[in-house]
Design brief:
By secondary structure, the chain is α/β, with parallel strands linked by helices. The chain has a single domain, classed as HAD superfamily/HAD-like (Rossmann fold), CATH 3.40.50. The protein contains 10 helices and 7 strands. It has a 7-stranded mixed sheet, sandwiched between helices. It is an enzyme of class 3 (hydrolase).
């Protein structure tokens, strides 16, 4: 069977959550209250994201420079090499933003990876774009569930690797789940089978 690996970015490919770190460092007063509303599902990613990035008064160059200091998770490059060597499919799937994701992938010579994420562009203020929303749900800016379901319909065995809130609804459609942090807690609460991981050497043991 064909295999596809769907990999979250923030806190999964990267050691730390870059998107959250950007908001924490650069956004003005009020960002935490907006984020708390998102966690409580009172607002979706698009509303939360735009409100928080409206509080940032720094340019795209400053954001990219900051993002470039973040490390990727140990074993990820080796993991990618195994995927390519076996002609498996890999998609970097994030509810974060291209402004920092593309920069980090570029700095690690990984810019050729297929990427699906939201967009953030700067022009005397930040404008966010969400091109893969589920109009019925509208909670995530980039509906990961739709992409996992598409891969399944195309005959792929799907391996889902993630750590966060935006991974919860999508991962249950995958054949195998690798989870850490918030996603691990969710799988345990809902009694969903998963493999725990801290880095990509842990993931490679099960490929």
């Amino acid at each position: 069977m064909k295999k596809a690996f769907v990999v979250d970015f923030d806190g999964t490919i990267t050691v730390k959550d870059v998107g959250f770190s950007i908001i924490q460092k650069f956004a003005g007063e009020g960002w935490r209250e907006i984020g708390d509303r998102w966690i409580r599902k009172e607002i979706g990613t698009s509303e939360c994201g735009q409100k928080q990035w409206d509080l940032i008064r720094h340019s795209d160059e400053e954001i990219r420079d900051f993002a470039g200091k973040f490390e990727i998770n140990p074993g990820f490059k080796e993991f990618v090499n195994i995927i390519k060597r076996n002609s498996y499919k890999i998609i970097v799937l994030s509810d974060g933003y291209d402004i920092y994701i593309k920069e980090i992938l570029r700095l690690n010579n990984l810019e050729d990876l297929e990427l699906s994420c939201n967009s953030a562009s700067y022009d005397e203020g930040w404008r966010l774009s969400f091109l893969n929303q589920d109009k019925e749900c509208n909670m995530c800016g980039n509906c990961k569930k739709k992409i996992v379901q598409r891969l399944k319909s195309e005959g792929y065995e799907v391996y889902y690797i993630g750590d966060g809130h935006s991974d919860r609804c999508a991962c249950v459609y995958a054949d195998k789940i690798f989870a850490k942090s918030f996603l691990k807690e969710y799988c345990e609460e809902e009694k969903i089978d998963y493999y725990a991981f801290d880095n990509f050497y842990d993931v490679m043991k099960h490929i």
